[in-house]
Specification:
single chain; alpha/beta; about 60 residues; flat; about 25% strand; three-stranded parallel sheet
């Protein structure tokens, strides 16, 4: 990555994260924050205000 990217990984209500995704982004030079929405929304709003790009991680559907 040429410029520092800021990525906000959002796990809605305790959804499982993608194994290794955060570390892979960090290895590529990104600044990564991980947030669980089952707690507070304020950290999400703060990160968005600071220019982080939101990525919502959803739990895969069974079946």
């Amino acid at each position: 990555m040429s410029a520092t990217r800021q990525v906000l990984l959002i796990r809605p209500h305790g959804a499982a994260g993608v194994a290794g995704l955060a570390q892979a982004l960090r290895d590529a030079g990104a600044q990564v924050r991980e947030v669980d929405l089952s707690n507070e929304y304020e950290p999400v709003l703060d990160a968005l205000e600071q220019g982080f790009v939101p990525v919502v991680l959803k739990t895969p559907a069974n079946g």
